[in-house]
Please model this.
Amino acid sequence: MTESFTVSFKKEVIQIVENGNIILQSPKRKLTLHRWNPGIQTALKSLAYSNHTLDQLRHLVIKNDGLEGLFKFNYYFQKFINLGWICHSVSPLATAIPIAEDYLFNCVNVDWQQQSFSISRFAYFHQSKKQMVLESPLSKAKLILFDWRGAALISKLSEPQTCTSLISGIPNITEIIAQQFIQLLLATKMLSIEDKNPHLVQWEFHDLLFHSRSRAGKHDNPLGVTYRFVNKIKPLPVVKNQTSDKIIELYKPDLKYLAKTDTSLTQVLESRRSIRNYDTTAITIQQLGELLYRCARIKKIIKYDMGETSQRPYPAGGALYELEIYPVINSCDGLESGLYYYQPLEHNLYKISEVNNHVETLLKKACNSSGNHDVPQILLVITARFSRIFWKYQTIGYSLILKHVGVLYQTLYLVATAMKLAPCALGTGDSDLFAKVAGINYYEESSVGEFILGSLKQKDSKI
Ligand SMILES: Cc1cc2nc3c(=O)[nH]c(=O)nc-3n(C[C@H](O)[C@H](O)[C@H](O)COP(=O)(O)O)c2cc1C
Model:
């Protein structure tokens, strides 16, 4: 069955003859064939242009080089597959292009009369470079669909289909072509196999896609620092341009004094707890000021050719610091209720809005997330200004942001514990609602974390 696919090199694989050796090269790999026979060279040339099946290439090699040449060719061809260099195509429907190394393309025996097939719940269609592409986090290939019939077949595979039922209503697709197409989908792990794999049962579509695409190994997208928007989009400044006619100066603690008197790191780590009920006396504006100063202020701004970075108490990838903090105040001694923005350079609060229905809903939802304990005295909504990260990093951008949220959570936990406050991280929040309340564009800046805070009851004070 393998033989019925046409096979070709990926476009990025180039071949040259140098000092009597054939050199094959992709952006990441180089392979030198020292001793080669004319049949192999002809086969390699036709792999660059395709339209040949593997069977046809093998015949070509045998004709020129005999059986010994065939063994060599088979060995090299398997190596090319493993390197992710070989595309398999089914005319007129689709081609499978490898997107990672350690690639396998194994065909299995199928009882075409009995077996039915359906598309994996992890597979997805999207448009890329004016082509319809089928991808899946389970697959190390992407399928380019040549015409609408490929898409129609995939759509029919949302329900189990035999080859016979699959082609009904699809013009000019024979059962043989449908069988080749199914083999292509099977070999690239696009068909449903999750029922047989207990490790896949708990994975949700978006989680597995995010996991596989934000780490190296299962794709060939550029990963890490690429600065792909240089000269196209201006980098965002380190400090957000926020305006308000109500600016509240915050208290700055005496760090030298704290360094002498603060609870030890071990005591803080050992006594830290998530606390969701508060004392009857509310947290104060001075405590909020101290917490924000100790956790999140800008200590220094550094300007580079490639934009601005800063130094703050917590670490962040590339020192880009895309996270912003918006305190939602329910009850805080010395501060009116409402929504504020924390300006980390000036160490000020900018008032954004009074309490309204939306602000109350944010507090209510935070209370729900905490298991319906006390309504938080303060809810810190953490947003990300995405472009700060996306401008520099590719593929890992969003996962970096979520890691930063964790770093900030722990910093808030530890400082709040040292300050004898009641802290608790939250795992859920409504980014759409927050964008509306704060007047920010969801795709430019959205909430990515929530942290609740209040005064500590005497009985919870264990330090
Ligand atoms: C990322 C993260 C998300 C959390 N989400 C919630 C949440 O939604 N609701 C809640 O009540 N607690 C939440 N917590 C607090 C955990 O329940 C708590 O840390 C855990 O039970 C261990 O207890 P401890 O913090 O007192 O040591 C979260 C903690 C973290 C770090």
